[in-house]
Amino acid sequence: MKIIGTGSSLPAKTVTNDMLASFLDTSDEWITERTGIKTRRLITTETLIDMGADAAKKAINMSGIDVKDIDYIICSNVANNFVTPAMSCMVEGLVGADCPCFDLNGACAGFLFALDMADGLLKTGRAHNILIVCAEEPSKFCNWEARDTTILFGDGAGAVVVTRGDDHVLSIKMSTKSKYESLYYQRKMELTPYDQGTELYNPLVMDGRDVFRMAVSASTRDIDYVMNEANLSPSDITYYLLHQANLRIIESIRKHLDQPIEKFPTNLERYGNTSSASMVILMDEMIRDGRIKRGDLLMLSAFGAGFVSGACAMRY
Ligand code: UT7
Predict the structure, then answer these.
(1) Which end of the chain is more exposed for a tag (fewer CB within 10 A), N or C?
(2) Each residue of 94-105: pLDDT tens digit?
(3) Backbone angles phi, psi at 266, to 5 degrees
(4) What is the mean pLDDT of the chain?
(5) Does the Cβ of 273 fall within 6 Å of ligand 1?
(6) Helix, strand, coil percent values for the chain (each to nearest 5)
(7) What 3 state SS string does 113-138 have?
(8) With 0-12 CB in 10 A as exposed, 13-18 as middle and 19+ as buried, what is 44?
(9) Which atom of ligand 1 lies at the shortest distance from residue 150's CA?
(10) Which residue has a Cα nearest atom 27 of ligand 1?
(11) What pLDDT score was predicted for residue 197?
């Protein structure tokens, strides 16, 4: 599998920490010190599906392939306004593709799950070109009267086109350790004459400290595993593209690997945590501004609700 195109799309509205502090019991100092986040982009008039399609068109354009040569579309999305059809079906129509489509929900590690699926489809020969779109609006899961989760998230979309290539994926490892209580969002379903139900709706519930601990231990474990399997040492990696959740989580992983800070690029200070889109948006920015070059060794690592995590070593 080889990445031949990337794209991203962000909402126009920038929300600063001070703007949040005007209606929440928080401050720019606290958010900056505890998370590294300064601003985030939040959806106002945009739709997530349009943003996903916008990112996809940019990725297809960079790849140079004909849209009709896309054999599969995989969308990574936790939730959006449409429960069905899948977001990938709607993106297909907007980009003008004609292929099977499905969505997956791998929480913030969704991009890595999608890469793993795509790698498998390419290896079996079932597909030659696959479009992966990660589009997320976590701001719509939060309780905006509370400060615990709202300060962390931003909305955005990123996309890649992958094709068959020579051993660009050196190793990929995904994990799930079921533990939903630490991070979950329950949305409303319709009542029926037979199930008048108890109210199960809950905006995003998060035990931040627990997620922090699990994130650091899962990411360091996954990266060590992948590094070992690919016979790499930490200094071989050009860039560590880590899930953009919290600068302190990234710093803990960096310390474990004992590598210079320049190898750990971030954009969370501008966009917050955009869930599965975060590392794709970062990758797109770095490819477009020339920081990531062909031949560079990338270590991707992400974690999220589930609890899911994964890492992937790949040559760009
Ligand atoms: O994709 C995965 C998504 N989730 C994550 O990545 C979350 C991972 N966890 C984290 O990023 C951090 O745990 C947080 C940023 C959520 C919280 O940082 P923390 O250093 O773990 O803070 P804490 O929860 O231990 O709270 C420290 C203090 C508490 O006050 P007291 O008890 O010391 O008086 C909190 O009540 O900070 C208070 N606090 C806040 N103060 C201002 C908690 N949230 C806020 C806030 N503004 N937004």
Answers:
(1) C
(2) 999 999 999 999
(3) -135, 155
(4) 97
(5) yes
(6) 40, 30, 35
(7) HHHHHHHHHHHCCCCCEEEEEEEECH
(8) exposed
(9) 48
(10) 34
(11) 77
Tokens representing 288?
């477009």
In short, whether 34's Cβ falls inside 6 Å of ligand 1 is: yes
Task: Please name the amino acid found at residue 234.
Answer: P
Supply the residue whose CA is at minimum distance from atom 1 of ligand 1. Answer: 304
pLDDT tens-place string over residues 146-159: 999 999 999 999 99
Whole-angstrom CA distances from 207 to 149, 158, 180, 200, 214 are 10, 27, 11, 18, 11
Q: Is 247 in the pocket of ligand 1 (CB under 6 A)?
A: no
Q: What's the pTM value of the predicted model, to 2 decimals?
A: 0.97
Write down the H helix ranges in the chain: 17-21, 28-35, 48-63, 87-95, 110-123, 208-229, 247-257, 268-271, 278-288
Ligand 1 atom nearest the C-alpha of 273 is 1
Model confidence pLDDT, tens digit, residues 107-159: 999 999 999 999 999 999 999 999 999 999 999 999 999 999 999 999 999 99
Cα(251) to ligand 1 centroid in Å equals 16
* Residue 28 CB–ligand 1 contact under 6 Å: no
* DSSP symbol at 147: S
What pLDDT sits at residue 165?
Answer: 86
Task: Give per-residue pLDDT as tens, 181-209.
Answer: 999 999 988 889 998 877 778 999 999 99
Whether the CB-CB separation of 143 and 84 falls below 8 Å is answered with no
Give the catalytic positions in this structure: 108, 243, 273
Distance 176 CA to ligand 1 centre (A): 24
Q: How many CA atoms lie within 13 A of 110 on its CB side?
A: 28
Tokens 């699926």 belong to which residue? 117
**251 CB under 6 A from ligand 1?**
no
Cα-to-centroid distance, 35 and ligand 1 (Å): 9
Ligand 1 pocket check for 151: Cβ under 6 Å: yes
